[in-house]
Amino acid sequence: MMTLRQFARRPRDIPAAAAWYLADLGEARGKQELCTKQSPQKLRVLREHALVESAVSSNRIEGVEVAQDRIRTLVFGKPLLRDRAEEEVRGYRDALKLVHEEGSGLPLNVDTLLGLHRLVRGEIGDAGRFRDKGCDIIETLPGGGQRVRFRAVEAPEVPTAVRELLEGWQSCLDERWVHPLAALAAFNLDFLCIHPFRDGNGRVSRLLLLLQCYHLGFEVGRYISLERLIEENKDRYYETLELSSQRWHQGKHDPWPYIGHLLYILKTAYREFEGRLGQVKAPRGAKTELVMAAIEGSTGPFSVGDIQRQCPGVSIDLIRRVLKQLRSAGRVRCLRLGANAEWERTDARK
């Protein structure tokens, strides 16, 4: 809330690096729709990879690990869970599924916040409840000693702080205090500084990052694990979090190190998305399925060219073969032969 308060008063000038990231991300979102239309089958493969990586990485950042040979079973199957670590990985999987399926339709409110926490904590103990005690963020030093890195908001103040944060987020979007992506990262920083739960704050913060990206139309988190990228840059993540949380309680902190880092994570995700999309092989028969889907979606006469425009990368010869098969099966009919041939589904006039 303190960062959004700061933005409401008078946002500082955006640092050059952050401004470049914002420009690049705007361009990446513009390409997003084209990428997702071109290769839906490849995207299915990327979604599965991202789901596994996210469930594992977000828990591993918090020191929760499971056996490598159990990961895919935990994420995609319904096995009997062996221990608490597997419960938490499964819970994060369930929370991810909720965010992915609901997307921008899932409101950002207190109920959603508590619901996500309930899932990631495996619905046990204080899952789905704000903490009722003070909480200091303790750092373990290399020599084994410890230090208080940050004192979170006092427990009695947590519900009020969370409500103010949620209201500030909506006001920031409505009144355009700052670029929405900068507001998203500011929200994430404030959430971590409030530290509303006894445990699970980091995992919930990463789910909120994904959810808010969906609200803003940035869907790269479906295909590239933002959690994995945060884990791979964990040292810088914690370094910028500490830098930006200094003097947070007084509202005199500098939020841009942390904001800049989250923007970097998003930019890296989009760069990786474009690269992986070119590397992943579509499943066997995927192009045929794509042509079939385009034909099934037609509502009137269509040409081979119409289908090809909906199926980038698919050859005319393949489209003609599919049409021949469908005509033999009585599912389409040819209305006109020749260079301007037209086709129609046999049930199109029913």
Write out key terms for the chains shown.
Arc Repressor Mutant, subunit A, elongated, two-stranded antiparallel ribbon, Fic-like fold, single chain, 350 residues
Write up what this structure looks like.
This protein has 350 residues and is mainly alpha-helical. The chain has two domains: 2-279, Orthogonal Bundle (Fic-like fold), CATH 1.10.3290.10; 286-345, Winged helix-like DNA-binding domain superfamily/Winged helix DNA-binding domain (Arc Repressor Mutant, subunit A, Orthogonal Bundle). Helix content is 60%, strand content 6%. It has 15 helices and four strands. It has helices at 2-9, 16-38, 40-61, 71-76, 84-102, 110-120, 158-175, 180-194, 201-215, 226-232, 234-245, 256-279, 286-296, 304-310, 316-328; strands spanning 136-140, 146-151, 332-336, 342-345. Strands 1-2 form a two-stranded antiparallel sheet. Strands 3-4 form a two-stranded antiparallel sheet. The protein is elongated. The N and C termini lie far apart (58 Å).
Helix and strand run? HHHHHHEEHHHHHHHHHEE
Number of domains: 2
**Assigned CATH class of the largest domain:** Mainly Alpha
What's the main sheet like? 2 strands, antiparallel
Query: Which structural class fits the helix and strand makeup?
Result: mainly alpha
Spatial gap, N to C terminus: 58 Å
Strand arrangement across the biggest beta sheet: 1-2
CATH evolutionary superfamily of the largest domain: Fido-like domain
Shape: elongated
Averaged pLDDT: 86
Approximate strand percentage = 5-15%
* Residue runs with pLDDT of under 50 for 5 or more positions: none
Number of helical segments with 4 or more residues: 15
Radius of gyration: 24 Å
